[in-house]
Amino acid sequence: MKKIIIGPSHLIERYMKKNGCPPNLFHGIEINGVHGRPNHDVSIEALLKKFTNLEYKIYYMISNYDLCNKDYDKLVKTNELFIVANADGGRTISPDYKKYRDFLGQHSCKILKYINDTYPHVICIPWCLLTRTLIDTTEYPTGISYNYVCKNYNNVVDIRNYVSDETFLNYIADKHGHPNRNGYELLKKIIDNE
User: Fold this and answer.
1) Cα–Cα distances in Å, from 127 out to 37, 61, 63, 80, 184?
2) pLDDT digits (tens, 9 = 90+) for 104-146
3) pLDDT for 24-68, tens place per residue?
4) Helices marked H in the chain — which ranges?
5) Helices 98-118 and 42-53 meet at what angle, rounded to 10?
6) Beta carbons within 8 Å of 154's beta carbon, 6+ residues apart
């Protein structure tokens, strides 16, 4: 069965190369990474639908909740799960991101529930959520925390089954949570085992 992994900048070739990902590590696996792609971007649903129809095994790297927080007003106004994300600088995280975090975290969890219910074959990997929890020591409210996401959605992989909190930081290349060589090898191990 063909495989694809979808996610944010962690899956862009230049970051992968820069951070030591072995050249053929993901041989035979399609990679679709976009810089700053938030969980609510319409491309996520389009890709899930497309590759489900093509009968791919799909892996989705859940993005940092704070990405495209400038989309807050549009998400509230439209009440849609997926929208065209703000392209004029909205792919960065604005300084007042914390005031949007709870809403965007809850919105992301609605998206995860939708993916869990509509695309139960999609394996979701909460890399960014674990990274934020450990690097920034971000304390998310219970309903959007790493533990909550892992326990409440059948298709979410608990990375802690593969590595401890104490050693996970050895798999990260930078403050943005991009994987280093070990991190990409861990990601590949997760793909191989899930």
Assistant:
1) 14, 7, 8, 25, 11
2) 999 999 999 999 999 999 999 999 999 988 887 667 778 899 9
3) 999 999 999 998 899 999 999 999 999 999 999 999 999 988 888
4) 13-18, 42-53, 72-78, 98-118, 127-135, 146-152, 165-168, 181-193
5) 20
6) 116, 120
Contact 61, 131 (CB under 8 A): no
Distance separating alpha carbons of residues 122 and 141, to the nearest angstrom: 25
Query: Are the C-beta atoms of residues 176 and 169 closer than 8 Å to each other?
Result: no
Quick one: tokens of 90? 């909205």
Cβ neighbours around 155 below 10 Å, total:
18
Which CATH architecture fits 3-193? 3-Layer(aba) Sandwich (3.40)
Structure tokens at 113: 């529930």
Of the candidates 63, 57, 28, the residue with the CA atom closest to the CA atom of residue 149: 63
Q: Which residues pair with 80 in a beta bridge?
A: none
In this structure, the number of other CB atoms found within 10 A of the CB of residue 184 comes to: 23
Query: For residue 123, what are the β-bridge partners?
Result: 59
Q: What one-letter code names the amino acid at 123?
A: I
Give the DSSP letter of residue 5. E
83 bridge partner residues: 41
Spatial separation of the C-alpha atoms in residues 13 and 69, rounded to whole Å: 25
pTM: 0.94
